[in-house]
Amino acid sequence: MAGKIDLLQGTLDLLILKAVSLGALHGYGILLRIQQISKERLEIQQGSLYPALYRLEHQGWISSEWGESDNNRKAKYYRLTPAGRRQLETETERWNQMAGVIAGILRTTPGAVS
Fold it and tell me: Would you identify the CATH topology of the domain 12-106?
């Protein structure tokens, strides 16, 4: 299995939106979900996660409410809002377009350049 991959700048918000689109999670649960769906290849630092959660909530893309975690501790649970779902769709489309452009550039051969 390949090692961990550094997160590309600007992708954390997209990954958080995707993680909470799969179900409400507390902050640490979001870290674990991203690790899980990346097959352990991405690791988000808590110092990056919590400012991003605050920013996404401030933008109205996620909402939060206090609840109890699996180990009976108070935890803030995050959910995707309708605006967040639209943002996730927009960002996913934008990401896929950019990935396609970059893939095309990387496939370019010397003979294709005039």
Answer: Arc Repressor Mutant, subunit A (1.10.10)
